[in-house]
Amino acid sequence: MTENDMLIEVRDLRKVFRRGGRDIVAVHGASFSMASGRNLGIVGESGSGKSTIARMLMGVEKATAGTVSVCGEDMTIPARSAAARRRRAKLTQMVYQDPFGSLDSRQTVASCLREVLRIHGVTAAAAREARIAELCDLVGLSAVQRERTPRDLSGGQRQRVAIARALAVQPEIIVLDEAVAALDISIQAQILNLLADVQRETGTNYVLISHDLAVVGHLTDDVVVMRHGRIVEQGVTAEVLGNPTDEYTRILRDSVPSLDWRQPGVLEAVAERVGPRTNFATRNISVPSTLERTR
Ligand SMILES: Nc1ncnc2c1ncn2[C@@H]1O[C@H](COP(=O)(O)OP(=O)(O)OP(=O)(O)O)[C@@H](O)[C@H]1O
C-alpha cells in the first residue's frame, strides 16, 4: 500500500486547550492512517480526545502540533476562501449525535438539501430536484417526509436527513461522531444497515467515533483505541477487539455485559444485513451498553 492509497494520514498530532489558566492536553501525539476502502473506528471513554481528533480531521479545530492530511490536503492550514472551504467540504462531512444541533429546525428536508446542492454547484433546478429525490430514496425518506421540518421527524428520520445532507456534497469521507448513540437499539440497527447500504451504493468511507464497541465492530475494518488523549492500541478491528493486547482495551471490552441478556435477534439482524466484520457471538466480545438499556 502506497501513501497515495491513504485517505487519512495523521502524524504526531497534538492538541492543547487552555482553560482557566491551565493547559488541557486533549490529544498527545497521535499517529494513525486510514486506507482507501477501509472504515476506521475511533473508540475510547468520554473525554479521551475522540471528538477533538474528529474536529482536527475536518479542519475546524487547529492542531497545536503535528500533521493531518486528508486526501493529500493539509488540514492544519485554514481554508481561507469560499472555494477552499467548498473543496474541503468534498473531503469530509460530519454527522453528529444530535442532528437537531446541525439541522435548521425551520427548514424542510427538501429545502435543506436544495441549499447544499446549490452551494455545491448543482445549479439547474431540475437536476437539483432529481438529486433530492435520489438522496431521499437512498436514505429511506418518503416524499411526505421530504416536506417536513426536523421537529416533525423522529430521531432516526432526522439522522437519515443528516446522512442525506452529508451525501449531497459527495464527500470522500463521512465522519460519524456518536451518530447512533442517542437512538433506540432497533433504530440504531436501521441506521447501521443504512450506512452499510449507502457505502455499497456510493463508495463513501466512514470514520466512526464511538464509545460503543459493537457498533465499531460491525462497521469498521480498523480501529484506534484512545485513552486520556493517547492511542493505546490500534490495528484491524476484529483482531484488536477479539484479542486486545492493551489492558485498557480489554477493560473497555469486558466492561460491557455478557451476551445473555441481549434482545433476542437484534444483533443478529444487524449482523445479517450489515455483514459482521467482527463476529461478536463467536468471539464473545462485548455488546453495546446501548443494547442493555432496552432490557
Ligand atoms: N474547546 C475546549 N476547550 C477546553 N477543553 C476542551 C475543549 N474541547 C475538548 N476539551 C477537553 O479535551 C478533552 C477531550 O475531549 P473530547 O471531547 O475530544 O473527548 P471525547 O473522547 O470526544 O469525549 P466524549 O465521548 O465525551 O465526547 C476533555 O478533557 C475535554 O474536556
From TrEMBL:
Keywords: ATP-binding, Nucleotide-binding, Transport
GO MF term (any one): ATP binding
Annotated protein name in UniProt: Peptide/nickel transport system ATP-binding protein
PROSITE patterns named in the record: ABC_TRANSPORTER_1, ABC_TRANSPORTER_2
Protein family per UniProt: Belongs to the ABC transporter superfamily.
One GO process term, biological-process aspect: transmembrane transport
Top-level lineage group: Bacteria
InterPro entries, alphabetized: AAA+_ATPase, ABC_transp_ATP-bind, ABC_transporter-like_ATP-bd, ABC_transporter-like_CS, P-loop_NTPase
Source species: Glaciibacter psychrotolerans
Statement: the UniProt record of this protein carries the keyword Kinase: no
